[in-house]
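Worked example 2:
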Amino acid sequence: MPDMPATTGERRPPKGFKAAIRRAVARKFFKYLVSKTKNFSHTTWLGRPIWQNLFDIQTIQETIVDLQPALIIECGTNLGGSSMYYAHLFDLLAAENRMKPGRGRIVTIDIEKMHDLSHPRITYLIGSSTAPEIFAQVKPMADAAAASGPILVILDSDHSMKHVRAELELYAPLVTPGSFCLVQDGVIDVLPNFAGGRPGPLPAIHDYLKTHPEFEIDRERCERYLITHHPDGWLRRK
């Protein structure tokens, strides 16, 4: 609804004030949402735990449909629901004959296996995402997939600044131009609920960007639904 014109003697609140109020309301709502949903810990996809902010998972879905990645590299399998979600999106695109040839693979990495899931599109690797022997398996997959389409990287494992920074150095260069490296859960550096996890992904992102001008923050994607666990997390390769 547009602002009503001020009557004689009335003063409009300054734009900066209104923006500050909107941010404060959004922040308060977000804190309540995290508390109410236990940080989305009970969120599921087809009955499988996915542990994702529903606003963020919608943005990811839209991005996958737009890009149709040849390969998604996910660091942080956890209970396996997210990689299964991505695989099912690829299945739906293929069922509608909207998937281009050679696309729709996922490789997901975690230090331990915490699920019994499997899918023909998904390769599961066990080990640290920053371990040389793990990266040595992922790199050839990415090189081969890049000939068929975009590479999308999603970082969602150890959220410490040091680990995320190391992951960025390894995996961000695998992103193809026009695609993204999504660094998840920078919210731990923002909301007081997560103060124990700091410093986390957000300073790792900002530090990485200082020396990597080939990437930029996609503000529209970061702020598409206002409420996000991944502030400044969508890094687009130019």
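Residues 42-237 form a domain with the Rossmann fold fold (CATH 3.40.50.150). The first strand starts at residue 44 and ends at 45.
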